[in-house]
Amino acid sequence: KLSEHIVKNQEISRMISTESFDLHDSDGKLHHKAMTTDEFLESGVSFGELELIGAKTGYTIKANGCLVLILKNPKNNGYLINIILGSDDRFDDMKKMVNWANYNFGL
């Protein structure tokens, strides 16, 4: 549901695909600056021809590291939605999964 909403809502997609975003209250006053915890955005990592639409990170002691990554495939205008749960290194695991999908499906 989250991924579907992100794909359909360009404003949310824009917010989560940047390293930081200014959040304003209803009066237009700056409330705070949101900073990403997404290492892919911070490092500028490339996924080849796939366009990074957005990502959502998460971590709790019980769930460990989690990551949802949404990539757009310009070849067929489709999306690759990747989900990592319970990982000790969610970003490395995600790189491996995207590379696997690229190799096996020629994305």
List key phrases describing it.
alpha+beta; 107 residues; 3-stranded antiparallel sheet
Provide an overview of this structure.
This protein is of the alpha+beta class and 107 residues long. The protein is 33% helix and 38% strand. The chain has 4 helices and 5 strands, in the order ααββαβββα. It has helices at 2-8, 10-16, 39-43, 90-105; strands at residues 20-24, 30-35, 51-60, 64-73, 78-87. It has a 3-stranded antiparallel beta sheet with strand order 3-4-5, with helices on both faces. α1 (2-8) crosses α2.
Run of helices and strands: HHEEHEEEH
Q: How much β-strand is present in the residues? A: 35-45%
Q: Give the overall pLDDT as a whole number.
A: 82
User: Biggest β-sheet, characterized?
Assistant: 3 strands, antiparallel
Instruction: Tell me the number of helical segments per DSSP (H or I, 4 or more residues long).
Output: 4
- Poorly predicted ranges: none
From the spread of the alpha carbons, the general shape counts as globular
What percentage of residues falls in helices of 4 or more residues? Answer: 25-40%
Largest sheet: spatial strand order: 3-4-5
Kindly report how far apart the N and C termini lie.
23 Å
Backbone structural class = alpha+beta
Rg on CA atoms, Å? 15 Å
Number of strands: 5
